[in-house]
Amino acid sequence: MAISLHSFFQERKFPFLFSLSLLLICFLFLFFTDSLTLNPLLRTYSSLRSPSLTSSSSSSSSSSSGLDLINPSSTHFSSSFAANLSWKLCDGSVAVDFIPCLDNFKAIKALQSRKHMEHRERHCPTPSPRCLIPLPVGYKVPVPWPKSRDMIWYDNVPHPKLVEYKKDQHWVVKLGEYLNFPGGGTQFKDGVDRYIYFIQETLSDIKWGENIRVILDVGCGVASFGGYLLQKNVLAMSFAPKDEHEAQIQFALERGIPATLSVIGTQRLTFPDNAYDLIHCARCRVHWDADGGKPLLELNRILRPGGYFIWSATPVYRDDERDKNVWNAMVLLTKSMCWKVVKKTSDSSGVGLVIYQKPTSTSCYEERSENDPPICDEKNKRNKSWYVPLTRCISRLPVDSKGQYFYWPSPWPQRLTSKPPSLSVEPSAEEKFFEDTKLWSTVVSDVYRDNIGVNWSTVRNVLDMNAGYGGFAAALIDLPLWVMNVIPIDEPDTLSIIFDRGLIGLYHDWCESFNTYPRTYDLLHSSFLFTSLEKRCDVVATVVEMDRILRPGGYVLIRDDMEAIKVLGPIFHSLHWSVSVYQDQFLVGKKGFWRP
Fold first, then answer.
1. Is 169 a residue whose pLDDT tops 90?
2. Which of 50, 64, 153, 238 could form a disulfide with 259 if both were Cys (CB 3.0 to 4.6 A apart)?
3. What is a biological process (GO) this protein takes part in (predicted)?
């Protein structure tokens, strides 16, 4: 060394060295004390191993309630099941954006007809694929909300077709590394914000974010209508098929706007009866009077009594022969359904719209000269809409056990925590609902928000895989995120209650692929889903599907019993995810950028 020991003492640096050493010793003492004594939440991964293969010494050293930090470099899984898993990338021209139930080209090619959009409906492969989706070249961590509403990385959704196809309508513009969304649209010639104001100006009964909270935007384009309504406390479910309007739903979800892939074809939409406060269609290219009016009758089914349908399309405001014929057919159909025209008008740009309202009682149905369309049979009432064919009938208005029509929910935000109109009238139902709300408020505040390592500032799009009453979503309402609440088809049907609360969701079967693009959610949540799911589904295929729809850097929060967690932990780890367990019932996984 340049300084001798003698000069070191002459310069009186020994006290400094002694102090530094003492500080280092104190730090090491506190570090190991915190890890081993003061923080009983930390323990090893041993409790996740198969019980028969876990040593007694490992078990005895584990805390009964703890956070198991799984170190990929040091953990050796004893589960032969996980050890036998090997992964490969999906191949083919659509692999990067592969949606198994919508990209089953073999099944689509075998269809006998495409007249009613059968080729845009679900055709799930058997068995479910186990390959992993590759990342687009240059993929980046998504632009955070709220900036993402107006701009996203081009490399994350590298589809230029809409940029050129809709350049005159200002749907989307490419600016350097970004895709920019200026708020234009086919019907939004003065901008979507002006269009939204025009609707409320046209009908003062429409109060955004108060009596109008959950809406459906049919044929939504890039979902700018729903995106701009978010600032008014309106939650819009934007939907469109996977069609020649390349990646429009993928754009929407990358922007952080609620959206799903769907089509009005031969089957019911995956929503409950009487769900939406308002339904919107701006040049959505749906032939409402086709097949005896089945498409519009399907909207009638999912529209809340007293709810509104806003239709902005050329037949409303143009006089050429084709548009006149469409308008006349619409007049006949809506009259037969007892829909009332509330307003019909045009804005300063010449774009017009008509606002219909669904009846709140059966008096009009009873006064029709012809029972056409007929009222649906009782067996069609409040049916889960999963692979259910469309019917040409008017859905029954909802009534309680005393024969009283359901009332409109309380204004937002009171409706989130008040008793839902569609809640069962059984004596214990109300108590059960409020207990569930209280439970999830506690779990989210005491566990999820601060104690499990989730960086909530990076979370925008959330999927609750079995949402129950929507308590998880309700407990997160003060965060800048939205939740897609899923009700599995084999669980109690509570989706109407979720919509009553001012939240959105749909039905799904987790034995099959979900209708969304890859890399569209930041966080997936479930509560005791896998305990029942493993009895009838391929759990590995379900995990592969979770990997498909979760973004790199995204999280899974799984609340379940330890037997289910012991199965799931090694599978996630084989995908190179970081995994931890809290209190022997919460598995937390974080997906990385690894691909095989």
1. no
2. 238
3. methylation
Among the listed residues 261, 249, 285, the one whose alpha carbon sits nearest the alpha carbon of residue 159: 249
Mean pLDDT (the chain) is 87
What pLDDT does residue 427 have? Answer: 85
Instruction: List CB contacts of 166: < 8 A, sequence separation 6 or more.
Output: 172, 186, 221
Of 438, 271, 281, 297, nearest to 374 by C-alpha is 297
For tokens 């004390």, name the residue. Answer: 33
Write the single-letter amino acid at 195.
Y
- The per-residue pLDDT for 77 is 34
Strands 352-357 and 303-312: antiparallel
Model pLDDT for residues 410-462, shown as the tens digit of each residue: 999 999 999 999 998 888 999 999 999 999 999 999 999 998 999 999 999 99
**CB-CB neighbours of 344 under 10 Å:** 14
Beta strand 67-69 pairing with 578-582: antiparallel
Tokens coding 573:
């780890």
Domains and CATH numbers, the chain: 145-378 (3.40.50.150), 415-589 (3.40.50.150)
Taking the CB of residue 290, how many other CB atoms lie within 10 A of it? 14
State the Cα–Cα distance between residues 218 and 224, nearest whole angstrom.
12
Residue at 333: amino acid letter: L
Identity of the residue numbered 344: K
Burial class (CB in 10 A: 0-12, 13-18, 19+), 18: exposed
Question: Taking each helix axis from N to C terminus, what angle separates 562-574 and 539-549, rounded to the nearest 10 degrees?
Answer: 60
If residue 224 lies in a helix (H) or strand (E), which one and from where to where?
helix 224-229
Spatial separation of the C-alpha atoms in residues 485 and 494, rounded to whole Å: 10
Q: Which one, of 292, 280, 347, 288, lies nearest residue 315 by Cα?
A: 288
How large a percentage of the chain has pLDDT more than 90? Answer: 73
Element (DSSP H or E) covering residue 42: strand 42-43
Q: Read off the tokens for 569.
A: 């932990």
For 180, phi then psi, to 5°, come to: -110, 140
Give, for 524, the enclosing helix (H) or strand (E): strand 521-527
Verdict on whether the full-model pTM lies above 0.90? no
N-terminal to C-terminal alpha carbon distance within the chain: 49
pLDDT at residue 71, as a whole number? 36
The mean per-residue pLDDT over the stretch 333-353 comes to: 95
Higher pLDDT among residues 422 and 15, named by residue: 422
How large is the average pLDDT for residues 328-349?
96
Contacts of 129 (CB under 8 A, 6+ apart): 90, 100, 541, 544
